[in-house]
Automatic annotation (TrEMBL):
<dbReference type="Pfam" id="PF01636">
    <property type="entry name" value="APH"/>
</dbReference>
<dbReference type="InterPro" id="IPR002575">
    <property type="entry name" value="Aminoglycoside_PTrfase"/>
</dbReference>
<dbReference type="InterPro" id="IPR051678">
    <property type="entry name" value="AGP_Transferase"/>
</dbReference>
<feature type="domain" description="Aminoglycoside phosphotransferase">
    <location>
        <begin position="40"/>
        <end position="208"/>
    </location>
</feature>
<dbReference type="GO" id="GO:0016740">
    <property type="term" value="F:transferase activity"/>
</dbReference>
<protein>
    <submittedName>
        <fullName>Phosphotransferase enzyme family protein</fullName>
    </submittedName>
</protein>
<keyword id="KW-0808">Transferase</keyword>
<dbReference type="InterPro" id="IPR011009">
    <property type="entry name" value="Kinase-like_dom_sf"/>
</dbReference>
Amino acid sequence: MDEVEVVVAHSERATLRVGEVFLKVDADQARIDVEVEAMALVPVPTPRVLWRKPPVLAIAEVPGTALGRLGEPSPASPAAWAAAGAAVRKLHDAPLPPWPGRGREPAQLATDLDVECEWLVTNGVLPADLVRRNRQVAEAALRPWTPVFAHGDLQLTHVFVDGEVVTGIIDWSEAGPGDALFDLAILTLGHEERLGDVVAGYGGDVDRDVIRAWWSLRSLLVIRWLTEHGFDPFAPGCEVDVLRSRM
Protein backbone atom coordinates (compact mmCIF):
# COMPACT_ATOMS: atom_id res chain seq x y z
CA MET A 1 0.00 0.00 0.00
CA ASP A 2 1.26 3.51 -0.80
CA GLU A 3 2.23 5.68 2.12
CA VAL A 4 0.42 8.95 2.79
CA GLU A 5 2.71 11.95 2.37
CA VAL A 6 1.75 15.34 3.79
CA VAL A 7 2.79 17.78 1.06
CA VAL A 8 1.65 20.92 2.88
CA ALA A 9 -0.65 21.48 5.83
CA HIS A 10 -1.81 24.48 7.84
CA SER A 11 -5.04 25.76 9.37
CA GLU A 12 -6.59 26.78 6.03
CA ARG A 13 -5.85 23.77 3.81
CA ALA A 14 -3.83 20.60 3.43
CA THR A 15 -2.53 18.57 0.50
CA LEU A 16 -1.82 14.85 0.83
CA ARG A 17 -0.17 12.53 -1.65
CA VAL A 18 -1.04 8.85 -2.00
CA GLY A 19 0.94 7.30 -4.85
CA GLU A 20 0.12 9.27 -7.99
CA VAL A 21 -2.96 10.93 -6.48
CA PHE A 22 -3.04 14.26 -4.64
CA LEU A 23 -5.86 14.97 -2.21
CA LYS A 24 -6.52 18.64 -1.52
CA VAL A 25 -8.57 19.41 1.60
CA ASP A 26 -9.77 23.01 1.85
CA ALA A 27 -12.06 24.64 4.39
CA ASP A 28 -13.02 27.29 1.81
CA GLN A 29 -15.05 25.62 -0.95
CA ALA A 30 -14.88 28.79 -3.03
CA ARG A 31 -11.16 28.19 -3.51
CA ILE A 32 -11.80 24.66 -4.74
CA ASP A 33 -14.54 25.95 -7.05
CA VAL A 34 -12.06 28.42 -8.57
CA GLU A 35 -9.38 25.77 -8.90
CA VAL A 36 -11.59 23.33 -10.78
CA GLU A 37 -13.05 25.98 -13.08
CA ALA A 38 -9.67 27.59 -13.77
CA MET A 39 -8.09 24.28 -14.78
CA ALA A 40 -10.96 23.72 -17.21
CA LEU A 41 -10.44 27.13 -18.84
CA VAL A 42 -6.72 27.81 -19.05
CA PRO A 43 -4.75 27.10 -22.25
CA VAL A 44 -1.80 25.53 -20.42
CA PRO A 45 -1.23 22.01 -19.05
CA THR A 46 -2.88 21.33 -15.67
CA PRO A 47 -3.50 18.30 -13.47
CA ARG A 48 -6.41 15.98 -14.34
CA VAL A 49 -9.31 16.14 -11.90
CA LEU A 50 -10.09 12.59 -10.74
CA TRP A 51 -13.02 13.29 -8.45
CA ARG A 52 -14.41 15.82 -6.06
CA LYS A 53 -16.29 15.30 -2.82
CA PRO A 54 -16.27 18.44 -0.65
CA PRO A 55 -14.11 19.29 1.14
CA VAL A 56 -11.73 17.07 -0.87
CA LEU A 57 -10.48 17.44 -4.45
CA ALA A 58 -8.51 14.56 -5.97
CA ILE A 59 -6.15 15.33 -8.84
CA ALA A 60 -3.64 13.25 -10.76
CA GLU A 61 0.10 13.75 -10.60
CA VAL A 62 1.55 15.77 -13.47
CA PRO A 63 4.67 14.47 -15.24
CA GLY A 64 8.04 16.12 -14.98
CA THR A 65 9.71 17.93 -12.10
CA ALA A 66 9.18 21.34 -10.52
CA LEU A 67 11.33 24.24 -11.69
CA GLY A 68 12.85 24.26 -8.22
CA ARG A 69 12.26 25.28 -4.63
CA LEU A 70 12.58 28.59 -2.85
CA GLY A 71 15.91 28.75 -1.07
CA GLU A 72 17.60 26.17 -3.29
CA PRO A 73 19.38 26.44 -6.67
CA SER A 74 17.07 25.51 -9.52
CA PRO A 75 18.06 22.36 -11.43
CA ALA A 76 16.07 23.52 -14.49
CA SER A 77 17.86 24.84 -17.56
CA PRO A 78 17.55 28.42 -18.87
CA ALA A 79 15.44 26.99 -21.71
CA ALA A 80 13.04 25.44 -19.19
CA TRP A 81 12.64 28.78 -17.43
CA ALA A 82 12.03 30.46 -20.79
CA ALA A 83 9.39 27.81 -21.55
CA ALA A 84 7.74 28.67 -18.24
CA GLY A 85 7.70 32.33 -19.27
CA ALA A 86 6.09 31.40 -22.60
CA ALA A 87 3.42 29.36 -20.79
CA VAL A 88 2.65 32.30 -18.51
CA ARG A 89 2.29 34.57 -21.55
CA LYS A 90 -0.18 32.08 -23.05
CA LEU A 91 -2.18 32.18 -19.83
CA HIS A 92 -2.14 35.98 -19.65
CA ASP A 93 -3.31 36.25 -23.27
CA ALA A 94 -6.36 34.07 -22.56
CA PRO A 95 -9.82 35.63 -22.07
CA LEU A 96 -10.48 36.80 -18.53
CA PRO A 97 -12.30 34.31 -16.28
CA PRO A 98 -15.93 35.07 -15.36
CA TRP A 99 -15.28 35.48 -11.62
CA PRO A 100 -13.76 38.49 -9.82
CA GLY A 101 -10.14 38.57 -8.81
CA ARG A 102 -9.09 37.49 -5.32
CA GLY A 103 -6.17 39.90 -5.18
CA ARG A 104 -6.15 43.30 -3.50
CA GLU A 105 -6.33 46.63 -5.26
CA PRO A 106 -3.40 49.09 -4.95
CA ALA A 107 -5.06 51.20 -2.23
CA GLN A 108 -5.79 48.12 -0.08
CA LEU A 109 -2.30 46.76 -0.71
CA ALA A 110 -0.80 50.04 0.48
CA THR A 111 -2.86 49.92 3.67
CA ASP A 112 -1.96 46.29 4.33
CA LEU A 113 1.68 47.03 3.63
CA ASP A 114 1.73 49.83 6.20
CA VAL A 115 0.21 47.49 8.80
CA GLU A 116 2.70 44.69 8.14
CA CYS A 117 5.70 47.02 8.07
CA GLU A 118 4.70 48.48 11.42
CA TRP A 119 4.27 44.98 12.86
CA LEU A 120 7.67 43.85 11.58
CA VAL A 121 9.44 46.83 13.17
CA THR A 122 7.42 47.10 16.39
CA ASN A 123 7.93 43.43 17.18
CA GLY A 124 11.61 43.47 16.30
CA VAL A 125 11.18 40.93 13.53
CA LEU A 126 13.28 42.91 11.04
CA PRO A 127 15.51 46.00 11.31
CA ALA A 128 13.73 49.26 10.63
CA ASP A 129 16.13 50.29 7.85
CA LEU A 130 15.56 46.99 6.01
CA VAL A 131 11.79 47.43 6.21
CA ARG A 132 12.00 51.09 5.21
CA ARG A 133 14.13 50.41 2.14
CA ASN A 134 11.90 47.60 0.91
CA ARG A 135 8.79 49.69 1.59
CA GLN A 136 10.26 52.28 -0.77
CA VAL A 137 11.04 49.66 -3.43
CA ALA A 138 7.52 48.22 -3.10
CA GLU A 139 5.92 51.54 -4.07
CA ALA A 140 6.50 50.81 -7.77
CA ALA A 141 4.06 47.88 -7.62
CA LEU A 142 1.26 50.05 -6.18
CA ARG A 143 -0.04 51.30 -9.51
CA PRO A 144 -3.09 50.57 -11.70
CA TRP A 145 -2.78 47.53 -13.95
CA THR A 146 -4.77 46.00 -16.77
CA PRO A 147 -6.15 42.68 -15.49
CA VAL A 148 -5.12 39.43 -17.16
CA PHE A 149 -6.04 35.81 -16.47
CA ALA A 150 -3.54 35.35 -13.63
CA HIS A 151 -2.56 32.23 -11.70
CA GLY A 152 -2.29 34.23 -8.49
CA ASP A 153 0.19 31.93 -6.70
CA LEU A 154 2.71 31.01 -9.39
CA GLN A 155 5.49 29.70 -7.16
CA LEU A 156 8.25 27.85 -8.99
CA THR A 157 7.17 24.67 -7.17
CA HIS A 158 3.85 24.96 -9.02
CA VAL A 159 5.40 24.80 -12.52
CA PHE A 160 6.54 21.38 -13.77
CA VAL A 161 8.83 20.78 -16.72
CA ASP A 162 10.31 17.85 -18.60
CA GLY A 163 13.49 19.07 -20.23
CA GLU A 164 12.44 22.24 -22.03
CA VAL A 165 8.68 21.51 -22.02
CA VAL A 166 6.16 22.71 -19.44
CA THR A 167 4.20 19.59 -18.46
CA GLY A 168 1.86 21.04 -15.87
CA ILE A 169 0.99 24.03 -13.70
CA ILE A 170 -0.72 23.23 -10.39
CA ASP A 171 -2.56 24.95 -7.52
CA TRP A 172 -5.07 27.25 -9.21
CA SER A 173 -7.12 28.23 -6.16
CA GLU A 174 -6.02 31.89 -6.35
CA ALA A 175 -6.63 32.22 -10.11
CA GLY A 176 -8.60 35.15 -11.49
CA PRO A 177 -8.17 38.60 -13.01
CA GLY A 178 -4.91 40.01 -11.72
CA ASP A 179 -1.61 41.75 -12.38
CA ALA A 180 0.56 39.99 -14.96
CA LEU A 181 3.74 41.21 -13.31
CA PHE A 182 2.69 39.72 -9.97
CA ASP A 183 2.66 36.26 -11.57
CA LEU A 184 6.12 36.83 -13.04
CA ALA A 185 7.39 38.12 -9.71
CA ILE A 186 6.14 35.14 -7.71
CA LEU A 187 7.62 32.75 -10.29
CA THR A 188 11.07 34.33 -9.95
CA LEU A 189 10.97 35.22 -6.23
CA GLY A 190 14.32 34.24 -4.72
CA HIS A 191 15.69 33.36 -8.16
CA GLU A 192 16.51 36.78 -9.58
CA GLU A 193 19.15 35.24 -11.82
CA ARG A 194 16.34 33.49 -13.75
CA LEU A 195 14.32 36.63 -14.46
CA GLY A 196 16.02 37.23 -17.82
CA ASP A 197 15.18 33.70 -18.99
CA VAL A 198 11.54 34.05 -17.96
CA VAL A 199 11.18 37.46 -19.62
CA ALA A 200 12.81 36.12 -22.80
CA GLY A 201 10.17 33.39 -22.99
CA TYR A 202 7.34 35.71 -21.94
CA GLY A 203 8.16 38.31 -24.59
CA GLY A 204 7.04 41.90 -24.88
CA ASP A 205 7.96 44.95 -22.85
CA VAL A 206 8.20 43.85 -19.22
CA ASP A 207 8.87 46.40 -16.48
CA ARG A 208 11.49 44.64 -14.36
CA ASP A 209 11.44 47.39 -11.74
CA VAL A 210 7.81 46.54 -11.01
CA ILE A 211 8.69 42.85 -10.72
CA ARG A 212 11.42 43.74 -8.23
CA ALA A 213 8.90 45.89 -6.38
CA TRP A 214 6.55 42.90 -6.14
CA TRP A 215 9.40 40.84 -4.66
CA SER A 216 9.67 43.36 -1.82
CA LEU A 217 5.93 43.88 -1.47
CA ARG A 218 5.10 40.19 -1.40
CA SER A 219 7.86 39.37 1.06
CA LEU A 220 6.88 42.13 3.48
CA LEU A 221 3.23 41.09 3.37
CA VAL A 222 3.68 37.38 4.01
CA ILE A 223 6.32 37.15 6.74
CA ARG A 224 3.81 37.31 9.59
CA TRP A 225 1.50 34.76 7.92
CA LEU A 226 4.39 32.39 7.23
CA THR A 227 5.67 32.48 10.79
CA GLU A 228 2.18 31.93 12.20
CA HIS A 229 1.57 28.92 9.94
CA GLY A 230 4.77 27.01 10.59
CA PHE A 231 6.95 28.23 7.69
CA ASP A 232 10.36 29.87 7.99
CA PRO A 233 10.83 33.08 5.97
CA PHE A 234 14.33 33.39 7.52
CA ALA A 235 15.57 30.21 5.84
CA PRO A 236 18.45 30.81 3.39
CA GLY A 237 17.24 32.18 0.07
CA CYS A 238 13.71 32.80 1.30
CA GLU A 239 11.68 35.96 1.93
CA VAL A 240 13.99 37.71 4.39
CA ASP A 241 16.99 37.13 2.13
CA VAL A 242 14.92 38.54 -0.75
CA LEU A 243 14.43 41.70 1.30
CA ARG A 244 18.11 41.88 2.23
CA SER A 245 19.06 41.70 -1.45
CA ARG A 246 17.35 45.05 -2.00
CA MET A 247 19.74 46.82 0.40
